TrEMBL record:
Gene3D superfamilies: Cytochrome P450 (1.10.630.10). Pfam families: p450. It comes from Glycomyces artemisiae. Heme binds at residue 375. Transmembrane segments: none annotated. It comes from the Bacteria. Its cofactor is heme. PROSITE patterns: CYTOCHROME_P450. Belongs to the cytochrome P450 family. Keywords: Heme, Iron, Metal-binding, Monooxygenase, Oxidoreductase. This is Unspecific monooxygenase. One of its GO terms (molecular function) is iron ion binding.
Length: 425
């Protein structure tokens, strides 16, 4: 603990605060202050940035205790307290859900996943398109099918509802300023309409499923949730809403980065194509080269590049005291490119994942977070990303119109504006 437990970690003090300097160059701001102040520094009177892997691991491990996941930008104290009260139920449903989807249901999902990926690629007609838009749609079909696809109904209406909800929310979250929650701006109205549309789409699928006769095993994740929470719609709707949102924007960004890297590194694309051809079945497991490629994409370009936790109870971390209402922020992007924890961190090297030894220092790889609030679909995301990247390398020729597009570290780290074409081969 620091000598003065009431003091705050050192940090920059801009003339008008640090927000403006951060907005001008978000990643550069973090790196400059890490060099000057170390791995723990104050961003404001209520926000602290932590960039040490061991401390970030502690922060994750103690989530649901002293720390809680970040609250929505439009939340109030009452909603924060309600969120905390739902954590035990939500966590129990998550654990049961991932265990409950059996192998046969997952295999059927994998087959539909590949078909849906080809469907989205076919929609592009080989034309130059916004790569992130296309990959977000592909990711949307993947998560919607895993949750709702087992009854044979088209999941496109769910994908469209998620798209509207996520895009409306993301526009507001990407802005460098926050407006009062009571102000009914056009953007906030769109966000609320999108959220309501998604709730209604989920409710429609849940109601339709309740009318179907049960089967011997789960058809998809919805069956598992209905079995675990038969009498409480909120305990079904809320986690499914979170999963759909989480499985859309970030995996879509990861697929966009993967498409870019496949085009920039044709030697890796050839290796993945040969791996896919040797397996024959596009859904067969055992794709170590594709999995290593995905891991390296997530290392260099983690979509959730900057996150944080709310302090829910008085806590100590790294020798500093924190009080309820404060925030502790961390950056997987910075940790993933720190030469103290990685060899040659600025190089794209999927082969670093080939050997039996870990290619990084302990706790230094966190694309999905860690601890009890690890990303709600990390295993699903890895499976879907691996199959999708393998399919992309195997069946499509990628041409980039603007490969040098800069990173945009907003809510999600993505190559905003990347234009590409995907021609069948």
């Amino acid at each position: 603990m620091s000598e003065d437990s009431g003091s705050r970690p050192p940090g920059p003090h801009g003339l008008f605060g640090n927000q403006r300097a951060y907005q001008r160059d978000r990643i550069g701001f973090l790196l400059r202050n890490q060099r000057e102040y170390g791995d723990v520094f104050s961003f404001s009177d209520v926000s602290t940035v932590v960039l040490d892997p061991a401390l970030i691991q502690q922060l994750h491990a103690r989530t649901n205790a002293e720390f809680a996941s970040e609250v929505s930008m439009f939340s109030d104290k009452g909603r924060f307290e309600r969120l905390l009260s739902t954590i035990p139920t939500t966590m129990a449903a998550r654990r049961k859900g991932w265990r409950g989807v059996n192998r046969s249901a997952s295999a059927r999902h994998a087959a539909r996943l590949v078909d849906a990926f080809d469907r989205v690629m076919k929609e592009t007609g080989g034309r130059e398109v916004d790569a992130n838009d296309v990959m977000m749609r592909a990711a949307g079909f993947a998560v919607a099918d895993f949750i709702f696809g087992g009854d044979g109904r088209d999941v496109a209406p769910i994908v469209d509802a998620v798209d509207r909800a996520v895009r409306a929310t993301q526009v507001l979250m990407d802005r460098p300023y926050r407006l009062p929650s009571w102000l009914a701006t056009p953007g906030r109205v769109r966000m609320r309409r999108g959220a309501q549309g998604l709730r209604e789409a989920i409710a429609d699928r849940v109601a339709a499923r309740r009318d179907l006769p049960p089967e011997d095993g789960p058809r998809d994740l919805l069956d598992v949730f209905l079995e675990s929470s038969p009498g409480d719609p909120e305990h079904v709707h809320m986690p499914l809403n979170l999963m759909l949102r989480a499985g859309y924007g970030a995996p879509g960004a990861a697929l966009t980065w993967a498409a870019r890297q496949l085009a920039l590194y044709p030697e890796h694309a050839r290796a993945l194509r040969e791996e896919a051809e040797s397996l024959g079945d596009p859904t067969a497991p055992g794709r170590p080269l594709a999995e290593a490629f995905v891991k390296e994409v997530l290392r260099m370009y983690p979509p959730s590049w900057f996150g944080g936790r709310e302090v829910a109870a008085p806590a100590e971390l790294g020798g500093w005291r924190f009080e309820p209402g404060e925030q502790i922020m961390f950056s997987p992007y910075v940790v993933h490119r720190d030469p103290r924890w990685w060899d040659r961190p600025e190089e794209f090297l999927p082969e670093r994942w080939d050997g039996p030894e870990s290619p990084h220092a302990r706790h230094a790889y966190i694309p999905f977070g860690a601890g009890p609030r690890i990303c709600i679909g990390n295993q699903l995301a890895m499976m879907e990303l691996t199959l999708s990247v393998s399919r992309l390398a195997h069946r499509y020729a990628i041409e980039l119109a603007n490969p040098d597009i800069p990173m945009v570290p907003q809510t999600i780290l993505r190559p905003l504006g990347l234009r590409a074409s995907f021609a069948p081969v």
